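S., here's the first fold you wanted:
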Amino acid sequence: MHQQALQLREKVLGKKHPSTLTSMNHLALVLGRQGKYEEAEKMHRQALQLFEKVLGKEHPSTLSSMGNLAGVLNYQGMYKEAEQMLDSLEFIVWEPKFFQRFLWGHYDIY
């Protein structure tokens, strides 16, 4: 179902549309829950790269994607990389300018 949604959104909206990226992220989460960690990691990395490019590094959807990738890395025993990713995520989230933008509604969450 998620694969079909992703394919349809890519076709209709394009590969870089935020809704398409959200579908990619959802599919990666499902793959991870199925134990297909390498496939999930690959898709999470692709989604994160595109979220950063399309929405920026500090957008909530990008940050969520980063957290999801850290989770699948953790499941694979890649603890150091997961920890580094979470550390950088924590740094961004606690930065005062992030709170100002997030709380004042300058981000659209997809």
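And the second, which I think is the more interesting of the pair:
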Amino acid sequence: MSPAASAPSSGAAQPPRRVAFQGEPGAYSHQACRETCPQMEALPCRTFEDAIEATRSGRADMAMLPVENTTYGRVADIHSLLPNSGLHIVAEAFVRVHINLLAVPGTPLEAVREAVSHTVLLGQCRAFLRDHAIHPVVAADTAGAARTVAADALPARAALASELAGEIYGLEVLARHIEDQSNNTTRFLLMARAPDWSRRGRSGMMTALVFRVRNIPAALYKAMGGFATNGVNMTKLESYMVGGSFTATQFFAEVEGHPEDENLARALEELRYFTSQLTILGVYPADPRRH
């Protein structure tokens, strides 16, 4: 029997009201909240742990957490937090990350000498900064950089951030979409207190799980065999140390399909035979932009 639904659906009488995210207003996670959950109030949190706790405690109905970026790679902190968060993945969202040069209104581009932002964004705009002789300055986060630039009101200093940050802090966009990689995209996971296996997505379903293999020769190889023989596509497999031990390893995996699908059900049954621990973290519709 499927777990009870908790995420918003077309038949829900009252949709969730708040979605927590890490960062200040105007962060790219805030943009993800606006795009994915426009009917919900976005709740800024200082850390990823705070966003998870806000959801766990009921102050927020969901948490919007970034897990990987096409340019930067995976968000390691999130992957280590997921298994013990006490939350369940109920959706995924792919958000196009456009980086913009923001300055106080009336500033000409040639007046800018410094660009302030998170080190990740600075690294993604090297070509533009080099071509315009703009010196990169590292800040703790993107939205915070925009807020600081607005407060300092120095024409020579600009911020690299989202257009949403410019809107919130009253900054002018001097240059749009200046990232080096034209496909710069961040994938987010929406987490809730209860799982929802009730939906079927038009672009297919995804299942996320964590497991530990039994301490026998070729256990991982044998555990993966069930997915191959049953025609289940595995889109992600990552390993993590457990408790600081080099011999205890936990795996995070994502596969296409729903646990109630016959082929995935057989694959999971075979996986259980070779594992000492198996937990399904979420079952959710695949974002159309995944494909």
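Why I say that: DSSP finds nine helices and 15 strands in the chain. Confidence is low (pLDDT under 50) at residues 1-13.

Talk tomorrow,
H.
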